[in-house]
Design goal:
By secondary structure, this protein is of the alpha+beta class. The protein has a single domain, classed as Nucleoside Triphosphate Pyrophosphohydrolase. Helices cover about 25% and strands about 40% of the residues. It has three helices and nine strands. The longest helix is centred in the last third of the chain and has 15 residues.
Length: about 160
Amino acid sequence: MKREIPIRSFAISLFILKPRDDSFELLLLRRTGSTLSGEWCQIAGGIEHGETAWQAALREAREETGLALKALYSADICEQFYEADRDAITLTPVFVAFAPTDCTVRLNDEHDDFRWLPLDEALALLPFAGQRATLEHIKREFIDRQPNPLLHIQT
């Protein structure tokens, strides 16, 4: 009998965009702690009991950056990756939020720095191919064209 690798979905991924001139910048945070310390990443975090995935995205944004976001979308994509330490495949729903140009970021202790970056610079800092592919998708679907209104989440 063959063994199956478990597929888990317990976390979210959130990319926050902010208008800048005629384009957008992406918020990246530099992680501290034992997991991915020193790496630049988007917001990510676990879904708590009783929460929807989109509610977790908004909560994680507040906790990690102090931002109370209003314009939230499903990115219509999931990040997927293999975790060797758990011998499992993880799927995380991806969300896109738009922050106002005058927003103020206040980091929690999970991060020690942040940057608003043009997408090409952000792509160069993201450590994983899946993150970069997701950001390319976000560029095509949320920057190069108007976001599909069917993906907008009423918060």
